[in-house]
């Protein structure tokens, strides 16, 4: 066993010990963040359509694969069933279908070939495919809001949702889903990745002609800056597209984004919200570190042997900082506590559920116990 595998095994033991307490306190919920007492808040109660609502199901599947404990599988299936209300609401289906149903229905289908899970995942995949703008060759991001038409927007985050389409093609032996996914990735590659490897969060198109118009600032510091969670989506998303298509250009793009990210990791290993944000205050987004770490491990398995250590060592560096700073108190619910949804929100550095998901996923990969719903 290597040193990093031993580190991963030890950390996973700490995770499963803590989560055994967490699940007993939190049956039948879908959390997003925590309250002042560090207890999960059930976001499903007030927002059954929130984009992160699949991550708790993903965590449950991770823990089931780690421990074999039936309670985690039962809770994962509970999340999947709860998401049916979303699946039947056209106004609340969007570019994040993958985040919701890859981590629930696809994971369930991988577990036991459930026909109900396959049906849910295919419904979600077909809806996502229907968001493809043929003129611009991109997937529309958000739905309309407050009377504002948003058919012209694509975002870097959507790269992760493409795996739902790749799965649909592979499962149904139907290339159309993968062709749409690959076409979107090509558009992101040419329109949203800068020469230095930094990424744009939002791209604006003419939805009728398909012409790329310009980019917009999003959840980072400002237009033209470098939102770190977007960088992490880029690393992981292009790596996944490479794995599903074997298109070498996707691998090269993943490496370009990763090299930029690694170059900008601060000395303490803690990732800021934006690599180009002001020095003070030092606002952190630990979720970007967790996503990037898992993506970098995935990337390390795709590159030439001589390059593997570059990405693996960077991931271990990020995971070491995250583990050192994690909340290991069994009476608290979240593991990763210094996340930020966007730079210009009022509240910073708090738990967000997807950070825990990618933190666990990364350590499972390090330990050689990979869970891959993507």
Question: What topology does this entry show?
Answer:
Blueprint: H1 3-25, E1 31-34, E2 40-42, H2 55-67, H3 70-82, H4 84-87, H5 97-112, H6 115-129, E3 132-133, E4 138-139, E5 153-155, H7 162-172, H8 175-191, E6 202-205, E7 212-216, H9 228-245, H10 248-263, H11 286-300, H12 305-325, H13 353-366
Order of helices and strands: HEEHHHHHEEEHHEEHHHHH
Gyration radius, in Å: 19 Å
Kindly state the percentage of residues in helix: 40-55%
Distance between the termini: 27 Å
Please indicate the percent range of residues in DSSP E strands (runs of 2 or more): 5-15%
Q: Rough shape?
A: globular
Count of helical segments?
A: 13
Largest sheet: 3 strands, antiparallel
Number of strands: 7
Task: Strand order, main sheet: write it out.
Answer: 5-6-7
Oligomer: single chain
| Chain-averaged pLDDT | 98
Poorly predicted regions: none
* Computed structural class: mainly alpha
Note the main attributes of this structure:
52% helix, single chain, two-stranded antiparallel sheet, mainly alpha, 374 residues, 13 helices
Describe this structure in a few short sentences:
By secondary structure, the chain is mainly α. It is built from 13 helices and seven strands. It has helices at 3-25, 55-67, 70-82, 84-87, 97-112, 115-129, 162-172, 175-191, 228-245, 248-263, 286-300, 305-325, 353-366, and strands at residues 31-34, 40-42, 132-133, 138-139, 153-155, 202-205, 212-216.
């Amino acid at each position: 066993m290597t040193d990093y595998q031993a580190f991963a095994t030890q950390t996973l033991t700490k995770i499963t010990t803590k989560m055994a307490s967490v699940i007993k306190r939190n049956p039948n919920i879908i959390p997003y963040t925590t309250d002042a007492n560090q207890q999960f808040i059930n976001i499903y109660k007030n927002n059954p359509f929130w984009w992160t609502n699949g991550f708790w199901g993903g965590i449950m599947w991770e823990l089931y694969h780690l421990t074999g404990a039936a309670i985690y599988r039962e809770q994962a299936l509970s999340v999947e069933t709860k998401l049916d209300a979303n699946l039947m609401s056209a106004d609340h289906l969007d570019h994040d279908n993958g985040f919701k149903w890859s981590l629930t229905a696809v994971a369930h289908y991988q577990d036991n070939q459930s026909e109900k899970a396959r049906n849910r995942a295919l419904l979600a995949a077909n809806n996502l495919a229907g968001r493809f703008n043929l003129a611009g060759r991109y997937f529309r991001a958000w739905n309309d809001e407050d009377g504002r038409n948003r058919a012209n927007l694509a975002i870097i985050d959507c790269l992760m949702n493409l795996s739902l389409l790749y799965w649909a093609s592979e499962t149904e032996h139907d290339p159309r889903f993968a062709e749409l996914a690959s076409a979107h990735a090509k558009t992101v590659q040419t329109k949203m990745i800068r020469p230095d490897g930094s990424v744009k969060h939002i791209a604006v198109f003419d939805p009728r002609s398909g012409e790329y118009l310009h980019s917009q600032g999003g959840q980072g510091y400002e237009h033209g800056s470098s939102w770190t969670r977007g960088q992490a989506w880029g690393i992981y998303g292009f790596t996944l597209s490479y794995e599903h298509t074997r298109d070498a250009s996707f691998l090269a793009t993943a490496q370009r984004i990763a090299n930029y990210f690694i170059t900008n990791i601060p000395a303490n290993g803690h990732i800021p919200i934006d690599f180009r944000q002001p020095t003070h205050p030092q606002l952190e987004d630990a979720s970007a570190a967790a996503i990037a770490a898992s993506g970098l491990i995935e990337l390390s398995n795709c590159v030439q042997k001589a390059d593997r250590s570059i990405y693996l060592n960077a991931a271990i560096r990020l995971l070491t900082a995250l583990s050192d700073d994690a909340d290991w108190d069994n009476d608290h619910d979240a593991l990763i506590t210094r996340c930020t949804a966007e730079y210009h929100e009022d509240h910073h550095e708090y738990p967000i559920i997807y950070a825990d998901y990618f933190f666990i996923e990364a350590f499972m990969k390090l330990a050689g116990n990979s869970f891959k719903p993507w």
